[in-house]
Amino acid sequence: MTTLSDRAEQLRKQAREQQATIEARRQMRFKISVEKTGEERRQHRRHDMERQGIAVERWDGKRRLGQPFGEIVDISAGGVRIRTQQGGIRPDQQIRLRLELPPYAGIHPFVDNQTQGVRGRREWVGWMAVSRVKQVDEKNVEVAGRLVDMDEMDRGMLGLYLSTQPLAA
Q: How confident is the model over 85-109, as pLDDT tens digits?
């Protein structure tokens, strides 16, 4: 039978071990830049997809037809940066996109939950709210924005899919 002082000593020992584990995990984490207020700047980690040459289409919902828009530079579960030659794009504009990403290691980037059961799928059609437009060279422009109408199941699967891809700088 243990006495109260023995039990208190056991609890102190457990607390010290937990503190040591927390400190060890803290040292292993990536260094994330923080704002002066102490908040992290990004909610989702960006992943470099430029080398893969994945095309993005500008989607016309009425005709159910996509037109070439550009290529993905980097992507996260919350947004995308696209290099395009199309001009006339400005911040605060919304663009309807069609993203089609290849499955990787048996993981599909999106989920088809419209049918009976849940199945993986490669494409997503939705809106991007343009937040930044940057001229790269004479012909190309980089357009960055948030994927605003993606449901949480697709956002979660995209995050899992991207965790297998290299991080962007």
A: 998 899 999 999 999 988 887 888 8
Sign of the alpha-carbon torsion through 164, 97, 129, 110: negative
Query: How far is residue 72 from each of residues 11, 27, 69, 113, measured CA to CA in Å?
Result: 52, 33, 10, 25
Does pTM top 0.90 for this prediction? no
First-residue to last-residue Cα distance in the chain: 57
154-159 LR contacts (CB < 8 Å, sep 24+): 154/110, 154/111, 154/124, 155/77, 155/78, 156/77, 157/107, 157/108, 157/109, 157/110, 157/111, 157/120, 158/75, 158/77, 158/109, 158/110, 158/124, 159/44, 159/77
Query: What is the number of other CB atoms lying within 10 angstroms of the CB of residue 63?
Result: 8
The closest of 79, 50, 56 to 165, measured between CA atoms, is 50
State both tokens at 47: 């992943």
Average pLDDT, rounded, for the chain: 82
